[in-house]
């Protein structure tokens, strides 16, 4: 996921992580979204505590 973030400068809701480099995922009830509610909040808090990776 770090590779995807470094390339696209954003977090996304779903990742396909089996085999090779993780990439954006898909499927489900709605189109892929940037971030995901609580995930964005947790990441912002961690960056605030520990700085950028």
UniProtKB/TrEMBL annotation:
Pfam families: Trehalase (PF01204). Coiled coil: none annotated. One of its GO terms (biological process) is trehalose catabolic process. InterPro entries: 6-hairpin_glycosidase_sf, 6hp_glycosidase-like_sf, Glyco_hydro_37. GO terms for molecular function: alpha,alpha-trehalase activity. This is Cytoplasmic trehalase. It comes from Salmonella enterica subsp. enterica serovar Alachua str. R6-377.
């Amino acid at each position: 996921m770090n590779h995807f973030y470094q390339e696209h400068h954003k977090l996304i809701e779903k990742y396909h992580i089996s085999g090779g480099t993780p990439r954006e995922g898909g499927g489900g009830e709605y189109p892929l979204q940037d971030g995901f509610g609580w995930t964005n909040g947790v990441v912002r808090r961690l960056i605030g505590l520990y700085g950028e990776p």
